[in-house]
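Incident log, support desk, overnight shift.

02:14 A customer reports that sequence design results differ from what the structure should imply. Their input is reproduced verbatim below. On-call engineer (initials T.W.) acknowledged and began investigating.
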């Protein structure tokens, strides 16, 4: 069979398989739009809360207005009691409620720090943290006003009073994450994981469903080449069009990205071939890839601190391409490290290529010997 006919036959076997097409192409396109959707606004804003004002003074009302004008919080309800606010919360009318104590204004005027209460669902930590940030900003502002006023009354010049309360000013200039949002640091890393997991499923299923006659060296090289070329196109779509679509920073040049993409995709293909050899059914490949996705995400270090993950888990994850690739692409694309900054990642990916190829051919030869014996 000529090489052209062999390529044509293998391409037909791959792209006529519904499972492979849905996993490799459909999955990539579907998750490209689905996953970033919750992060479109970069961070939660205008969270609905209720205020229980037990002080009912001009100062407490001023504080409630300051809370409402913050970017993070939107006061939509006024409750007469804590029980009423609790009922609003349990009925999902609000995401939390603020309690202003009865001696709020009295303590402020005496120069003391009143304690306000907030109740919310801390299991939604992004929303909870956003509301707390808004409340702390408003509370800090009104507290500063009165502390500075007390210093001025005691005879301290106004400029000196302000300087004593704020001895220095912060000027934050984000170097990499310019929007200080989730899209810039979560989505690029997850895109790498999506490319890995969808390709693993596609290659594993194709390898599992291939016959003995389709596992010659020439067949395998053609299969490898088709998957590599197709995945490179999908990866360029991710790092090109979708990065621009979501306004994600990209400091790496196309050539630098391609240099890192080739060993990453190659290692994933070789791992998929190996899984297709050792796992009993195509369904088992799909289940393994799906159930491994969450541990990979949390051990990669971009959502959950890697220092808080047991070292044995992070060591195991370095046996997967995503362990080197996620870190490498973040350095290259989001931090502008250049190829010199990702040499370790490149070396790790090429080492994995050698490891997976060795394991695959050892397994393949054992199966061939077993078949000849039988």
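02:41 Re-run completed on a clean worker. Output:
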């Amino acid at each position: 069979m000529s090489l052209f006919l062999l390529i044509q036959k293998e391409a037909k076997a791959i792209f006529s398989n519904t499972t492979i097409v849905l996993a490799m192409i459909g999955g990539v396109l579907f998750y490209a739009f689905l996953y970033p959707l919750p992060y479109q606004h970069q961070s939660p804003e205008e969270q609905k809360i209720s205020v229980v004002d037990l002080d009912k003074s001009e100062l407490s009302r001023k504080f409630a207005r300051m809370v409402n004008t913050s970017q993070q919080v939107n006061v939509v309800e006024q409750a007469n009691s804590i029980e009423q606010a609790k009922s609003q919360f349990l009925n999902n009318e609000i995401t939390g409620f603020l309690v202003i104590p009865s001696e709020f204004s009295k303590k402020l005027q005496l120069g003391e720090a009143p304690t306000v209460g907030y109740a919310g669902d801390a299991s939604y930590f992004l929303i909870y943290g956003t509301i707390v940030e808004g409340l702390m900003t408003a509370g800090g502002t009104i507290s500063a006003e009165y502390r500075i006023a007390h210093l001025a009354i005691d005879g301290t010049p106004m400029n000196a009073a302000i300087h004593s309360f704020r001895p220095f000013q912060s000027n934050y200039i984000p170097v990499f994450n310019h929007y200080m949002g989730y899209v810039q640091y979560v989505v690029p890393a997850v895109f790498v994981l999506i490319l890995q997991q969808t390709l693993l499923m596609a290659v594993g299923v194709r390898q599992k469903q291939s016959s003995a006659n389709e596992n010659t060296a020439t067949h395998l090289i053609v299969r490898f080449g088709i998957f590599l070329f197709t995945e490179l196109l999908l990866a360029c779509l991710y790092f090109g069009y979708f990065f621009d679509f979501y306004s994600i920073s990209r400091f790496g040049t196309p050539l630098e990205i391609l240099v890192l993409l080739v060993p990453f995709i190659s290692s994933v293909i070789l791992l998929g071939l190996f899984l297709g050899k050792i796992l009993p059914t195509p369904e088992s490949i799909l289940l393994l890839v799906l159930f491994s996705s969450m541990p990979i995400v949390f051990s990669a270090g971009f959502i959950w601190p890697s220092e808080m993950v047991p070292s044995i888990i992070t060591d195991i994850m370095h046996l997967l391409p995503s362990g080197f690739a996620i870190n490498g692409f973040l350095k290259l694309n989001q931090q502008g490290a250049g190829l010199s900054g990702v040499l370790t990642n490149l070396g790790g990916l090429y080492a994995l290529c050698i490891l997976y190829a060795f394991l695959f051919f050892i397994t393949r030869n054992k199966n061939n010997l077993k078949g000849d014996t039988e």
